[in-house]
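User: I'm designing a mutation panel for Class IV adenylate cyclase and want to avoid disrupting the core. Could you give me a predicted structure to guide residue selection? Please restate the sequence first so the numbering is unambiguous.

Assistant: Good idea. Sequence first, for numbering, then the predicted structure tokens:
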Amino acid sequence: MEAQEIEVKYRVVEPEPLLRVLAEEGVALSEPVRQEDQAYAPAWWDYGKPKTGVPFARLRTVQGKHLFTVKTPQDNEMACLEAETVVADAGQMHQALLQVGFRPTVRIIKERRTGRAGRWSLCLDEVMGVGMFLEVETVTAAGESGLAVQAGLDAWVNGLSVKLERVTDTYDSLVRLAQHQRA
């Protein structure tokens, strides 16, 4: 079965109230883990063009292990068909991506804490140069409506009654925008 990862993302305005409410909801967050991601896009694609239907790759390094992921947005950028696997050699995977027509876009470095709320996964991310974010995600069958699932996730987050700002951009777009604003 092809899997679809569906998520909603929020900029965290005030971390302490969020942490308190998550604890009250029974969400135990892990200790922070550093993730270093190199994002890739097809050579013909550029920022400003639609992402729906376009495969994007990521090479993530966490504690010396490398994870290769391809996401293809479906209903929007945060409802994606996803395939991933562990790779032994990040350098060789990078070269393979270049040979099949991908180009590196941005590096995303973050400290991630994870937890669960029922069947949903939660990530509290401190993204270097961009800020703190809460992601709530689930995995569904490929044909399920991403928009309907996102509406349910959003309703749960809004029920937390914590000040958060919904974000519809992916981390690569947010990091790229922050880099251009600083330049």
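For picking mutation sites, this is relevant: Residues 10 and 166 are 4 Å apart (CA to CA). The helical segments are 15-24, 90-99, 146-158, 171-182.
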